[in-house]
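Customer escalation, tier 2.

The customer says the design service returned an amino acid string that "doesn't look like it belongs to this structure." They asked us to rerun it and document both sides in this ticket. The original structure tokens are below, unchanged.
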């Protein structure tokens, strides 16, 4: 089963995180995505366009979205549903009181 990682943003720290994730040996079965503002993805600024091309060259998927200006419902639509690999154990009323 493959897994996925979503990195929020690709500034100085986010870009280094993406590079490290892409280079990690276990990443071959992992979909690495990065949430970027649509204006950054579509920028005509040569420097920004080069940054976006470098991110894509790592094999990452660009996810357009704005964490600041989007509602929680809009952000939720960007993400796949989370399905646990095994159900969480049910807690009994006695366990909840401890």
């Amino acid at each position: 089963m493959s897994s996925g990682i979503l990195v929020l943003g690709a500034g100085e720290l986010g870009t280094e995180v993406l590079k490290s994730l892409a280079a990690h040996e276990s990443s071959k079965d992992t979909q690495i995505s990065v949430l970027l503002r649509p204006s950054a993805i579509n920028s005509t600024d040569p420097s920004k366009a080069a940054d976006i091309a470098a991110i894509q060259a790592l094999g990452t998927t660009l996810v357009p979205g704005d964490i600041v200006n989007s509602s929680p419902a809009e952000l939720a639509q960007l993400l796949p549903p989370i399905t646990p690999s095994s159900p969480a154990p049910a807690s009994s009323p006695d366990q909840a009181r401890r």
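Tier 2 assessment: The sequence is consistent with the input. Residues 5 and 32 are 5 Å apart (CA to CA). Residues 82-88 have pLDDT under 50 and may be disordered. Sent an explanation to the customer and offered a walkthrough call.
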